[in-house]
Write a structure and sequence with these properties.
Layout: E1 2-5, H1 24-32, E2 52-56, E3 66-70, H2 81-101, E4 113-117, E5 126-128, E6 132-135, H3 150-163, H4 172-194, E7 204-205, E8 220-221, E9 230-231, E10 235-236, E11 247-248, H5 252-259, H6 261-274, H7 279-290, H8 301-311, H9 316-325, E12 342-343, E13 352-359, E14 366-371, H10 377-387, H11 392-395, E15 407-413, E16 419-422, H12 428-438
Parallel strand pairs: 2-4, 4-6, 11-12
Antiparallel strand pairs: 1-14, 2-3, 5-6, 7-8, 9-10, 13-14, 13-15, 15-16
Helix pairs in contact: 2-3, 3-4, 4-5, 4-6, 6-7, 6-9, 7-8, 8-9, 10-12
């Protein structure tokens, strides 16, 4: 069996990772590892009207899990760093949205927030499933637990906000906007906690999420998409930062984590040019655009850019220039892929079962394949049950609905074409098939 875990769609011109001195946050994260805590714990309380509860999935996948801490409980001090990190992170996130943008919870009506930690075994992801903010512990080799950086929590919370405002579909350009908006307000939270303005911030998302020894500064760099990591196990950071480099792919819900670097960089440019805090400057503009009636489920880069310019007031020219710098020209419709976009690799060879896992918070890709001639009887039986005319793959709906930061599994069985299945729609047989072919990159045990 050949199994590879690599980041694909790597643009050839991306810069190799440059060494840099750790900033205040990164230094504090590394100092705190021996104590098992991170410097997010001394954060403001959530608005009194907003309730939240952290649950413990106890390495299972049934949500929400056992309730272990709620708003108003004294802390930190639960003896579980993941619980304390999730509690501090949601308190800070709710306070930022309430105090900085006037929004009460993700629905703007004070909805209770349900969080789950210790999801799955060695689960390398965090996601919003429409009801819960869910965090894995990481595998300890590549990823640390996903509650360590509070900006990861703020990122997932923003997916909930987007769901209750524009409702951007999680595919293609609207999906990339969905991802970018989550990074935008995650960066705002990080900068607010550190007391930084837009000009002095590092603009890294997910700093501290990688385990020691991984050659990475963070998961993403909003100021310089494509430069956050360069590691033998991960490959090079595959994000792009300009429309000329737009990636066309069926993986990752149409490249939502790859192409989100384009609007990410536009926000960074606008925030620095406007000056002051990212939240109070460009953040306010981006939020006003998000809740504008003209922004809806299928809004693309050009239409969202136009909404930000309309919301920018005296900063309209600055915001327009920021979008133009990444190849999105407001008023011209210039936000389509270039004439000869890069595409993903071809389909599986005949008589091979291939499973690809894409998406997830990190946007990385795992690929596994097994020649059917080398498959054991159990795997052959599993492939037959899934791939026949009345099998699980044939019964799936034709248009799968992706969900923010959930994994997507693509199955290619024999000479059949690829079938994309969101993580939440996996049947027991498909889940087992993915485990058998992907190995460590497969879905978690229930």
């Amino acid at each position: 069996m050949h199994i590879s875990r690599a980041c694909t769609f790597i643009p050839p011109w991306l810069l190799e990772r440059l060494g840099r001195d750790p900033d205040v946050l990164g230094e504090a994260v590394r100092r705190s590892r021996s104590a098992g805590v991170v410097p997010w714990l001394d954060l403001p309380d959530a608005p009194a009207a907003t309730a939240w509860t952290v649950h413990d999935a106890q390495q299972g996948t049934r949500l929400p899990g056992l309730p272990v801490r709620s708003a108003g409980d004294p802390g930190p001090g639960s003896a579980d760093p993941a619980v304390d990190e999730a509690a501090a992170g949601i308190a800070a996130t709710l306070a930022m949205w309430h105090d900085g943008l006037g929004r009460s919870s993700y629905d703007d009506a004070g909805a209770k927030v349900l969080l789950t930690v210790h999801y799955g075994v060695d689960y390398d992801n965090a996601f919003w499933d429409g009801s819960h903010l869910v965090f894995g512990d990481g595998d300890g080799e590549v990823f640390e637990r996903f509650t360590r950086p509070a900006d990861v929590l703020a990122h997932e919370f923003t997916h909930a906000v987007v769901e209750h405002t524009a409702g951007l579909v999680y595919r293609g350009q609207p999906g990339a906007l969905n991802e970018s908006l989550s990074d935008v307000f995650a960066a705002c939270l990080k900068q607010q906690v550190l007391g930084q303005d837009a000009a002095e911030a590092d603009w890294l998302i997910g700093e501290g999420i990688f385990a020691a020894g991984v050659r990475a500064r963070a998961l993403r760099d909003m100021a310089a998409p494509g430069t956050a990591f360069d590691d033998p196990r991960l490959g090079s950071d595959p994000q792009v930062g300009h429309m000329d480099d737009f990636v066309v792919t069926a993986s990752d819900n149409g490249g939502v984590h790859l192409n989100s670097g384009i609007p990410n960089r536009a926000f960074h440019l606008a925030a620095v040019a406007i000056g002051g805090s990212a939240l109070g400057g460009a953040g306010r503009i981006w939020y006003d655009a998000l809740v504008d009636a003209e922004v809806g489920p299928t809004t693309d880069f050009a239409r969202f850019a136009a909404a930000t310019v309309a919301a920018a007031g005296a900063h309209a020219a600055t915001v327009r220039d920021a979008w133009a710098e990444v190849g999105v020209e407001v008023g011209t419709g210039r936000a389509a892929p270039p004439a000869t976009p890069r595409t993903e690799q071809g389909l599986a060879e005949p008589e091979v079962v291939r499973v690809t896992r894409s998406g997830g918070f990190a946007g990385l890709v795992s690929v596994g394949e097994v020649p059917l001639a080398e498959a054991d009887d159990d795997l052959r039986s599993l492939v037959d049950r899934c791939g026949r005319d009345d099998g699980d793959l044939a019964r799936l709906p034709g248009t799968p609905q992706g969900a923010p930061d959930r994994y997507v599994y693509t199955f290619e069985v024999g000479t059949g074409g690829p079938v994309e299945v969101p993580e939440q729609d996996l049947t027991d047989d498909l889940r087992e098939l993915a485990r058998r072919v992907l190995g460590p990159g497969g879905p978690p045990q229930g």
